[in-house]
Amino acid sequence: MRTGLAIILLTVAASAAGCAASGESCGPGCPAWARRYGGAAPEPPDGRVHLVCRDILALSPAPLDVQILGTGEIEAHVWVGHAVFISRGLLAAMDDAELQAVVAHEMGHVLAASSRMQAGLRGCPIGLEAEVEADRVGRDLVKRNGGNPSAMLRMLRKVAASVPADSACERGLRERIRRLNLDG
Ligand SMILES: [Zn+2]
Questions:
Q1: Which residues surround ligand 1, an ion (CB under 5 A)?
Q2: 159 CA distance to ligand 1 centroid (A)?
Q3: Of 9, 32, 44, 52, which is the most buried if we count CB atoms within 10 A?
Q4: What is the pLDDT of residue 125?
Q5: pTM for the full model?
Q6: Ranges of each domain in the chain
């Protein structure tokens, strides 16, 4: 009982703190999570992610909000059934085709058999196989929507270059790039 009440109070406190990523838009636990990435705010319907990724976002079985994370790091996440999160750092680093590949990767998590409630772009420290699957599904989505599937590789190389060299995170990204290359 006490734990439940504490969670409710924490949720209320998070809302009162003014985090734009409210429980309604991305689920329980999300506001506190978003604060680790500089907070989140909804992207207006005429924003770049909406405009560039409309066709891919439309593939989600449940409508996804688009939220922009305040961090300058290159990051993206999806809370399945709620929202896709794109960081300001990512928007600055990626061209439109690469941004489409990012959202397709996140949609890969939504549509993949290994779908989890919450998943990210870097994938670390979460399982490599789920990331490889999301990369492959995402690349197929880009291709089916008339985009250039090689943008998935370019995008992953940029993400790999943005994490500490020789970290577990970088090694995981390099392995994903290698596996995607093997697929042709
Ligand atoms: Zn991922």
A1: 119, 123, 131, 134
A2: 11
A3: 52
A4: 64
A5: 0.84
A6: 19-182
